[in-house]
Amino acid sequence: MPELRFLIVDDFSTMRRIVRNLLKEIGHADADEAEDGVVALHKLRNGKFDFVVSDINMPNMNGFELLTQIKADDKLKHLPVLMVTAEARKEDIIAAAQGGAAGYIVKPFTKATLEEKLANIFKKMGW
Amino acid sequence: MDQHTHEHQTEMFQRLGRITRQLHDALNELGYTPVLKGAVDELPDARSRLQYIARLTGDAAEKVLNRVDEAKAEQDAVRQHSQQLLDTIGAVPGLKWAMPELLEWTQKIQHSTERTDAHLTEIMLAQDFHDLTGQVIKKVVTLAAAIEEQLLQLLLESAAHAQSEAAPQPAALAASAPGGVRREQLAGPVVDPEGRSDVVTDQSQVDDLLASLGF
């Protein structure tokens, strides 16, 4: 299991806490949080992170906009971005994939789903 | 925008303006202005009630998460102690044969703590209701605010008996934010997927959709 530093991005503190606890249970205790894309981008550009777990529907900068900014930044584009969101329209799922998202989880989700998607991404990244 | 499109748009907005004035006049003649005013007065109350619900459900979710964290810590301590006891039983020659019920009891404790921990994880996950309901509430509150603004505007124009023939200016299109998708365009949680083919209803459908497109 690679030792990774996660950034959890969601405007609901409850959800950030749930994801953080689940990551810890899965074996990834090193995580920070951001309440929207603007804060997330600032933290990513000024810190050291290995993985982003992001909601889509957020104020100031939503998850799609954050994904675009990350993939347009030479220093951040390598980061896998896993979308964890209530947005269930097929066009949004496709847009996320085409925008470079590493995975897409719809809420509500299970611990097993999060574990599975992380494992898939780790495998693709060669970790 | 070419000349033809511009003329068409101007004509459309002039027609909208005439319809709006007719609506104003009709509301006045029919005596609906007080009713409208009542609706406008009640909307802030409706919004604050929804915000109250969002706040209380958030507080409830946080309380549950706090208790889950504490309970998990307790379960983890019990699990560790039971493991230490199992190790001790294994290390003392003959103990597990002399007291098989002690070994059995310790193993049961371990299994029980694992099951309890899994239940606590499910309780934690169930608090995602706050996020999902909160998103829906936010959208309704935003909608209520927009309706309130429009009704208020309608009231003001109705009361002032606007006479101007000028066409209302087309609303400025908000510039697209980077990424192209603004928050207002996002649908939020699907409240009723019945009869819809444009949404997914579970993770397996997400995975199938992505797999079908080669992702």
Automatic annotation (TrEMBL), chain A:
It comes from the Bacteria. GO terms for biological process: phosphorelay signal transduction system. Residues 5-122 form the Response regulatory domain. The keyword Phosphoprotein applies. The keyword Phosphoprotein applies. Gene3D superfamilies: 3.40.50.2300. The gene is cheY3-1. It comes from Serpentinimonas maccroryi. Pfam families: Response_reg (PF00072). PANTHER family: CHEMOTAXIS TWO-COMPONENT RESPONSE REGULATOR (PTHR44591:SF25), STRESS RESPONSE REGULATOR PROTEIN 1 (PTHR44591). The modification 4-aspartylphosphate is found at residue 55. This is CheY-like receiver protein. Keywords: Phosphoprotein.
